[in-house]
Amino acid sequence: RVLEPLLVPWGGRPTAWFMAGSSAQFLGRIRDAERYYRAGLELQDDSVLGLNNLADILLDNPGSDAAALREAVSLAEKASSLSQRRNPAVEETLHQARERVRAVDAEHESK
């Protein structure tokens, strides 16, 4: 929430929200970063950077449940499609997201 007053004049620009998300993520303010990425994606839902970074946050959050991990897969799949499967960072995020979902599904099935 520290960056929000600075975003007011730039609120309609998705790039400002993505930059704020990156800054918050760097500072370890994961909830803020998630909120900023989501705000940016509301304005520009085809941002490969925004989609990939939000997916990455959902994957890195130890508290992410199965629904959040499935959302990460969906976000990464969209980013992968938009980048024509040519962005190695996006492809890595997608791979990790699918692996995490498989692991959660396998654990659930074993119970």
Protein model, in words:
Helix 3 (30-43) runs antiparallel to helix 4 (48-60) and helix 5 packs antiparallel against helix 6 (88-110). The N and C termini lie far apart (40 Å). The chain is built from 6 helices and no strands. The chain has 111 residues and is an all-alpha fold. The protein is 76% helix and 0% strand.
Quote the average pLDDT.
Answer: 90
State Rg: 15 Å
State the helicity in percent bands.
over 70%
What is the count of DSSP helices, taking H or I runs of 4+ residues?
A: 6
Biggest sheet architecture: none
Q: What key attributes describe this structure?
A:
111 residues, mainly alpha, 6 helices, 0% strand, globular
Describe what is shown at a glance.
By secondary structure, the chain is an all-alpha fold. Helices cover 76% and strands 0% of the residues.
Explain the layout of strands and helices.
Blueprint: H1 4-7, H2 14-26, H3 30-43, H4 48-60, H5 66-82, H6 88-110
Helix pairs in contact: 2-3, 2-4, 3-4, 4-5, 4-6, 5-6
